[in-house]
Amino acid sequence: MTTHSPYRRAFLKQVATGTGLTLGLTLLPKSTAVAAAQSADSHLAPNVFIAVTADGTVEITCHRSEMGQQIKTAITQIIADELDADWQRVVTLQADGDKKYGDQNTDGSRSVRRNLARLQMAGATAALLLKQAAAKGWQVNAEDCECKDHKVVHTPSGKRVDFADIVAVAATLPLPEEGLVKPKARQDWRYVGKAVRSVDMEKIISGTTTFGQDMAVENMLYAVIQRPPVMFTQPESVDDKQTKNIAGVVKVLQMPTASAPANFAPLGGVAVLADNTWSAMQGADALVVTWSKNTHNTYNSEAEKKTLIETAAADGEIVRQRGDASAALKKAQKTVSATYYAPLLAQAPMEPPAALAKVSNDTAEIWTSTQNPQATQAIVAEVLKIPPENVTVHVTLLGGGFGRKAKPDFAAEAAWLAREAGRPVKVIWRREDDIQHGFYHTVSAQHIQAGLDSKGNTVAWKHNTVFPTISSTFSTEANSPSSGELRLGFIDNPFDIPNLQLEKGKAENHVRIGWLRSVANVYHAYAIHTFADELAYAAGVDSKAYLQQLIGKPRHIDLAKEGAEYDNYGDPIEDYPIDTGRLLAVLEKATAMADWENRKKQQRHLGVAAHRSFLSYVATVVEVDVDKDGNWAIPNAYICIDAGTVVNPDHVKAQCEGGAIYGLSCAIGEISAQDGAISQTNFHNYQVARIQHAPKNIEVHIVDSNAPPGGVGEPPTPPFAPALANAIFAATGQRIHELPIPLKLTV
Amino acid sequence: MITFTLNNQTQSYSGDPQMPLLWYLRDAAGLTGTKYGCGMALCGACTVHIDGDATRSCRLPMAAVADKRITTIEGLDEKNAHPVQIAWAENDVPQCGYCQSGQMMQAAALLSANPSPTDEEIEQSMSGNICRCGTYPRIKKAIKAAAGSEKA
Q1: CA distances, A737 to each of A328, A338, A343, A729, A741 (Å)
Q2: What is the CATH number of domain B2-75?
Q3: Between A and B, how many CB-CB pairs are < 8 A?
Q4: What is the pTM of this model?
Q5: Is the ipTM of this complex over 0.95?
Q6: CATH fold of B83-147, please?
Q7: Which of A249, A354, A668, B74 would be a feasible disulfide site paired with A213, CB 3.0-4.6 Å?
């Protein structure tokens, strides 16, 4: 904002076309505007991601939800890079829910992998228009111009002009042909591939960020809901006398009860609306409600566990087959089998769900911490019976998501209550609500049998996976693992075993099942890699060497050849093959970081796992110390990730650290049910990793790669639990066949 | 009527004396930097300083803050340049950021009582502050940096 006054006037005079300075540069190449074109109310003209304002400020709109993965920073880096913008003159805005942006459902570790090329094109288009505008003024070729530090520079003459001075002209230019738009070459990247600090840092350290829980508008009521303790039950009697005596309580409303399938609909229950949070909480506590009963009242985790394990031990439905595993097992020199069990888990983001709704006759405005703003529009529209385009969803920062906030039932609750109350309503989920009424990471049982030949090679592998499916949340028919879940670390088993049979078994759901960071990869990786370690011991071979042997030669696995359904996380297998070479490479690196070969000499107890998920490869080595009383601690964890092209290495490192610790929480936490109701209530009985449980030291290595970007938020989680379980075995000789792992082992 | 000092300003309160300080801060004073995470003093997201001591505001009734000096994240440092805040930024500690006000308030109290804590002392002091994003390694690093005790 320094150099442009006299020059600016002259320049504009030269090329002025009558457009005002306030016009934004808001364009998008056709290829990246597909979603916008499909949107009923969209104009193709605006580039939904970039605006350059009259003073040259580059406004970048992040259309994905920010929940700690630093996508706002990543998107800013990608676009600012193409423009070679001055970081100090860039602002990042958060998009509302709108299909003009294309997919906004922030899950599946796909924000960068699905948007890098698209946003580079968007940025490069804006850059080209600025260059064309400058070239027009100078009457030179745009090809001889480049964007440099928030200016366009004419390379042959050295002439330069600030973005602010050409934005008005650039805004009048037609969209360039797609073929003319060329994103920067990799070696010219200025921000991408660099450790840039979070764009929200100043606000976070000063406590001035806004999350869903923090929202407030005039005349707002605060709502706390007593939800049905057992899924789909409803109040039979409600005594709210005490509630209504509490100062600040304004209204008590009985909500409609949900029925199967759950979808994202509110569960129902009794809502207490008050003029402050505390009164609403007290009011909800003071309600005396008796609830109806249904078949889910018989759900007990202990009994269900037995059923799941029995189903896993029986023959399942074959979903992938190579060779003849049954025959090979019969002929095997040695057989090994094991059953693995992992309980329900709650995502438990630090910010419990919350949403604020302001509703009129036929419109609604929502402020919420949602991972899925367009689904939020849809469910609010459904509940209010208004068109989705009449629902504005403002996405606040998310205090963690981990999959929970991809299911916007809380926003629908707020909308329904706001309409009933005739005032804006903020719904606050208490921690107890979050733990007891979630969309749970499913409970699972798996049975694996393997046959070893006389040399100790695994020649047969039979694996049956049994769990209540996420599909049961959306369909009453669904009662066995969906192909979508089987693709998560099960059907894509990378082991080079001649006889392989993968099966699935049926299981009924009794709670709402949903996604949790890495989803089915978590329990599949736990079983597969703990069992791989068991096989290593059975064969008398070093665990890492045996894992290498199981993975086999570097190759691309073609699941289609074996008739297995595989969608490769929605991306082309040609671009993202299942590459065992990359899996072996991260395994090699992580074990080298851990000084694996010398561990016995050093009396260190290590466990290892290596898993491909969300198109990235992660190997994790965990070191465990166990004291004489059975208390264990993790002095070190070593992680190597190959996520292809990386936008922000420091934030990838942070995801590896955090993803590992989330994996640790998955290994020590448990949600269970008694008579259909969840037994845990808060952090005293739902164990999550605290600072003293976390590895004292985490080393992360990011493979330097030009491959297309893979996922980052989820892949570090799955290998942690098996690596930990294997380390505990190395230290104690105890096999972890069941989760959770107690913090104090029996010794 | 209860009077107290909030971020160096005298305030008074005449509502329900049993209401936890957290809801006064968030709903009445509009200071939403202090977060709700559990309501049972189990997670530390609501940590503030009462006369300089780290305290969980979600379980502290307003009756207990009479004549006390309350500091929230918004008042930790006029320029948001407390050594802990600087270290948090320099080590890129936060992920989602939700628990970090509580983490920083806890860390600031730790350092004022113990300017050079060991790893174990850090773990002990910070064990009541949950971070689901798993920023613990960086929290530890940042506390040591703020303490100036980070070894090369």
Answers
A1: 25, 8, 12, 11, 9
A2: 3.10.20.30
A3: 182
A4: 0.94
A5: yes
A6: DNA polymerase; domain 1 (1.10.150)
A7: A354
